[in-house]
Design a protein that fits this description.
This protein is α+β, with helices and mostly antiparallel strands. The protein has helices at 28-49, 65-84, and strands at residues 2-9, 15-22, 57-62. It has one domain: K homology (KH) domain (GMP Synthetase, Chain A, domain 3, 2-Layer Sandwich), CATH 3.30.300.20. The protein contains 2 helices and 3 strands; from the N terminus they run ββαβα. It has a 3-stranded mixed sheet with strand order 1-2-3, covered by helices on one side. Strand 1 and strand 2 form a beta hairpin. The radius of gyration is 18 Å and the shape is elongated.
């Protein structure tokens, strides 16, 4: 299962980078390949729903921010546990 976490669109709306996460980090490569293969279909569906001259070309990128946030939270928790002693 993947979750879309954000989208960055170029100023001319020709390109969009779509960020995603996976429940299992071991499936990132498979998810990236699946999204890449589905990009044309997704772009067509997007074009039907938006009012732009052209639909942006979609590029998918794994979002590491969730993992970094969890790691930072663990570090903060370990420091605060050490201070309570």
């Amino acid at each position: 299962m993947i979750t879309l976490t954000g989208v960055e669109v170029s100023s001319d709306c020709a390109h969009a980078t779509v960020f995603f996460t996976c429940l299992d980090a071991a499936h990132v490569a498979e998810a990236t390949e699946g999204l890449r293969r589905a990009a044309g279909f997704l772009r067509t569906q997007l074009a039907k729903r938006i009012k732009l001259y052209t639909a942006p070309e979609l590029r998918f990128e794994y979002d590491h921010s969730i993992e970094r946030g969890a790691h930072l939270s663990q570090l903060i928790d370990s420091v605060t546990r050490g201070q309570k002693r």
